[in-house]
Each structure stands twice: as C-alpha cells, then as structure tokens.
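Hi team,

As requested, here is the filled-out complex form for the heme C run. I kept the field names the same as last time so the parser does not choke. Let me know if anything looks off before we queue the next batch.

— J.
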Amino acid sequence: MRVLCLPIALGAFAIACAGAAPPAPEPPPAPPPAPPASASAPAPAAETSACAPRRDRAITTTSRSGSTLVLEERPNKRLLYAADEENHAIHTLDADSLAELAVTELAGRPAQILPLRDGRLLVTLRDRNRLLVMDPGDQPERPIATLCERPTYTDPFGLAVSPDGARVALTAGFDHRLSLLDARTLDSARTIDLPAEPRGVMLSGDGETAYVAHLVGGAVSVVDVARQESAVQRIFVRPPKPKTEAQKGKAAPKPINPSQELAAAQGFAIAEIAIGGEGDKAWPARVFAPMASSDPMRFGAEASFPSTYGGGGGGVAVIGAFVAVIDPKAKAPLGAEAVKVRESRPEDCILPRAMAVHERRLFVACMGTDMVVELDANAADPISTERARYRVGAGPTGLVIDAANKRALVLSDWSGEITAIDLAPDAKGASKRLRLAHPDKPALSAELARGRKLFYATRDVRMSFDGRACASCHPEGRADGLTWATPDGPRQTIVLAGRADRQGPFGWFGDHPVMKNHVSLTVERLHGSGFHDRGGAEDFAALLAYVRSLRLPSRAGAIVDEGVEAQRARGRELFYAKETDCSTCHLGDATDAKHHDVGSGDPHEKHRFFATPALRGVGASAPYFHDGRYATLLDLLSDPNSKMGRSANLSPEDRRALAAYLESL
Ligand code: HEC
Ligand code: HEC
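And here is what came back:
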C-alpha cells in the first residue's frame, strides 16, 4: 500500500488508493456544509412509506435504465456507483478523479443499480430476491444507507424509470416477470408474465411502453404500460429463414418451434437511442439490443447428422454477433432483411453485456473477449460497421458514458476494475485502468475463477473452431432454449446450473457415465483442438469444477402469487401418485440415473432410450424433450400420444397444478 494513501478499512474491504488512478483534474468545488446525515433526519410521518425519498436532491441522471455502473450528477459532485457482483458490494467513486470514496457491503449479489432523480438508488439483489431502496445521503465517503427493502419475484435483474420519474419497471429472470412499481413507495402496481429469462428493461421516451431484452428466445418483449389488460407483444429480432425450393409448400420440419429457425440469444442490454433531435423531442427513437444470432439447424438438420453442433465446420459459422435495431413505431426490427448470420470470427462480440451511446457512436461491452467494440449507431446493421475496439478488464458487465470528461467508463466484474476509454477524437482510444477496493480473500477460488474464464472464453480454439463458448449455449449456466443439430440428431441444450453436480449419466442419451466424458465430446463436436497443451489438463479440470459449482437462483423470500402454493401442493400429490407414474423415474427434481424408452425416440437415431433428465429448474428450460418438441410444460403434460407417465387424462386444472409443481423444482 502506498504511503500517501489513507486506507479506510470497511469490513472486509480495504480501499487502497490505486496507483493506476489518473491524476485528479481540477478539484471539484467545495461542498456546502454537510447537513445532518439522512439517518438522523426527522422520522417520517407514519403514513409515509419507509421507501420514500427523504428529500429531493434534484439529481440529473444520464440513464433511465439500470446498469452495474451508473453515473449520478449532483449540483456539486459527480459520483459513480459500481455494482460488485463478485464481492457483494457497491463502490462509490468520484466520477472526475475516479478516486474511490466508499464501499457499501450488501447481503447479496447486486445485478443492477438505478439512480433516481430524488437521490435514491435502487439496487436489485439477485440471489436474495430483494429490491433495495438506498439513500447515499450527502456524504459520499460514507457507506450508503438502506431505506427499505421490497421482496421481488425470483431472480430480480433489470431496472428502469419513466422519464417523469413516477414509475419504475423491474424484471425477474427466473420467474419471467415484469413488475411496474410506484417510484415513490416502490409498491407494486402491476405484474406482467413475460416469456423466459427477461434481463434489461427500458421505458420509452413517452413513458408508455416497456421494452425488455431476453437472455433466450430471440425476441424483445413490448408491454403497453398504461393499458391494464394489454398483452405482451414479442418482436422477433431475426427474420424468418427463407424456405428452400424443396421446403416450399411443405409444413415446417421438426423441431416445431418456428421462432427458433433463426435464433438469437444473450440479450442483456436494451436502450432507446435518439437519432436526430435531442431529449424527449427525439421520439420516436430506435431501440437497440445487442445479442448473438445463430442458426442452430444450419442444414435443416433434423434428419441429417452433422459433425458439429449446429452443422457448420470448414469455415461455415452458425453464430454471429448482432445488434438488433427496432423501429418502435412499427414495432418491428429495422432492416432485418439486410442482416445475415455473418461468418463468425473468434474475436466477435457473441457475449454482449452492456451498451451505451455517445454522439452516434455505439459502444458494446463484450464478455469472452474483454473488449468494447465501437459501432455506428445510425446503421441498420450496426455490427457490420465496426470502427474500433478497446481492451478492458476481465468480465465487463457495465458501460457508462461520462460526457463531461469525454470518456467511456467500463466496469469489469471479474478483475474488479474500471477502464476509462478516452473518446476525444485525437486520443486514439487511450485508456486507463483503476482497480477497485477488494477484500483480501477473493470471493471465488483460483480454480473456479480459472474455470469461469474458460466457460465464457469466446476465443479459445481448444474448445471451438468458431469462437463459441460454453456460455453461448449455456448462458449463466442455464440453457439457450435452442435445439441444435448434432451427430446424435436434434438436441436441445441442457441446463447445467444446479444439475451438473451429480452422478451421471450425462447427455440426453445418457451415454456418458461421468461429466468429463460428455464435455470432452462437446469439445470434439465444436471442432475444438482439445486440452492437450501445457496446462491443458488443469484448465479442463477447472472448467469442470466451475460447471459443477453453477447454481440455480434461490427462491427464498421471493413473491409467490396467491393460490400458487396450494396448486404446487396438489401438483406434488399428483407427481407422486400411482395414477401418473411420474415418480417411478423422476425422483422429484433428481433422476433415477437410468435409461428408458418413453416412445420419444426417432427411428434414424442410434437408440430409442434416453436418460431420465434431472428436473431441477425445469420451469426455465423450455422447450422440452431431447428434440425440443414441446414448447411448454402444459403441452408436454397434455399430449394424448405421450407414453411418458400418465398426465393427458388429468383434468385441465390438475395438469396446471402438475405444471406448477414442476415449475417449483
Ligand atoms: C452449440 C451449443 C453448445 C455449446 C457451445 C456447449 N454446449 Fe453443452 N450442451 C449442448 C447440448 C445441445 C447438450 C445436450 C447434448 C446431448 O445430449 O447430446 C449439452 C449438454 C451438456 C452437458 C450435459 C448435461 C447433463 O445434465 O446431461 C454438459 C455437462 C455440458 N453440455 C457442458 C458444456 C460445456 C462445459 C461447454 C463448453 C466447453 C458446452 N457444454 C458447450 C449445447 C452446447
Ligand atoms: C419411464 C420413465 C419415466 C416416467 C414414468 C416419466 N418420465 Fe418424464 N422423462 C423420462 C425420460 C426418459 C425423459 C426424456 C425424454 C426425451 O427427451 O425424449 C423424460 C422427460 C421429461 C420432461 C422433460 C424434461 C426436459 O428438460 O425436457 C418432463 C418435464 C418430465 N419428463 C416430466 C414427467 C412427468 C410429469 C411424468 C409423470 C406424468 C413423467 N415425466 C413420467 C422418463 C420418465
């Protein structure tokens, strides 16, 4: 530690004045005498919500959507808040000097922070199913006080506020919900059921429409906020695949889900960007969502047996970087016809995590490559206009533009760093790095950190020829919801989180008694060169250890809708009843580790029996069966031709109860 540095020990964290911090520019104007800390403010009147703002600080915030790195502009100070997912903390920094001012330890993993104009900060705690309402007070050197907590649905993630500051939108990934809250009290006004795995959310310039990015499913959800009964509209960001001559006039081949012919996944960030005009006058703007697009059935391969996952090989790629641009008026992707799955290169941004715009320069932060790519925000297909790329710290999760200092600031969660990229035209992308305060003992063991890096590595030719990472198909250890052409036939991606730490067999066929065998085969199927180099064996072991460590979100403390507990209890009864026969093979969420022929096999395939799948987290792993033939659990339970257990004869109500039980596993 440096001599001049005044370390403030805060619990497990120690703030070390980072040697890498750029020299502070002009000192900010001296703050006015500190008013009493908010904690000692007069007790709010009994009828006032504990969540309500203590006083309006008239803060100008630059973004209406949450992120892991946010900028808050106060009349006399500009602050940065960084969500430290790995160490469960929020770092407060001076946005000009980048000096770290305080660390606030949290009870769980923060997913996003959203500063409100009245000075409060909203924080989603992903693993605690909580929304925190915090008040940084007037002394940014102090840890941030929590005003109140609100329970959420399971796996809260994205946050957004309406332009008038009255309404807050909140997504919950695992429970696929959008909640609309009163910004003052944070009481829920309405909850909307969304398609699977929502992440980032934004509210339009007129405050009337919510747009939600999804980790899987290839669509952006659109919700009319003002109309109570309005349904969720889905905008598929990829155009339908043109039919070949042979297919014309014929019904679509298996697998059935048409939205998956040309697919997209990895939607985290979403933002409305005004092209022409400024501020609220610029509406209608365009909505941008960086994703990865793919063609999992490249050869229409339901009956063919390609040598790689998705076909391809020999330079033919099945996945590519992509930024969806949506015309909010037409509620349709812009210039979609122009956008092809481009030949992917290992350096492509196929795990985009965060996005920001500065003067028509569109910046996307990419996991896997640890790069920020700069694109043209005016283009119909921005990804084809790459102008520059900037190296950042490992595991970027947040990106914010600091217009006053003409720079982009990037938070890298894994390396615990902020990279400041100079955006001045003559700066040639010069960047500086600042290491955030960190606990003495890393949150992740060295082996798991090594495994995680590999799981997300998009440029490791040992694992794939075209840059695909494990996280491309198993995002966050979950599943991409796609059915891939494989050497065994069409195969739906299996959820790893919460399931891989068990005895085999592995894979749909259950051909692999231990996970190691399956992953070795995966690498072969991705045409990777294998882990034969020096250090390769340790890397492979670390990768397997990381996969085993992946967990599904906890439901503890989450909101459960009225009547659902009773429905789940009824469903559980049915699951263990003789009449349905489910528990002969499925031991609750576990598997009997045996193979069975449940009449689902295809005559082309090498055998007709499959390993009983583990059902943990099955609610979030649609579509179902090895070939993804059922879009929903209700479809699976209602199929009159099914030879798996007996559920089609149950009353519709009992089938719904059984589905509710399965969703709770
Ligand atoms: C192209 C998409 C894709 C990529 C990339 C991918 N997987 Fe998979 N994964 C799948 C599919 C599809 C299955 C089911 C395959 C089967 O049963 O034949 C699967 C199954 C698995 C399973 C078996 C799970 C179980 O419970 O039976 C493991 C473990 C696994 N993958 C790990 C990995 C790892 C580690 C990587 C990175 C090296 C990886 N996968 C990369 C698509 C992918
Ligand atoms: C004879 C053993 C057996 C019985 C009985 C059985 N299952 Fe299955 N289950 C399987 C096998 C094998 C598969 C995989 C089939 C495939 O993918 O083709 C499966 C797949 C599933 C899946 C899809 C999992 C996924 O991730 O796609 C669900 C859900 C499921 N079973 C629920 C049930 C329910 C509910 C019952 C009772 C009505 C039941 N099963 C009875 C063996 C069984």
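Two things worth flagging: The CA atoms of residues 459 and 467 lie 5 Å apart. Confidence is low (pLDDT under 50) at residues 1-9, 16-47, 250-260.

Thanks,
J.
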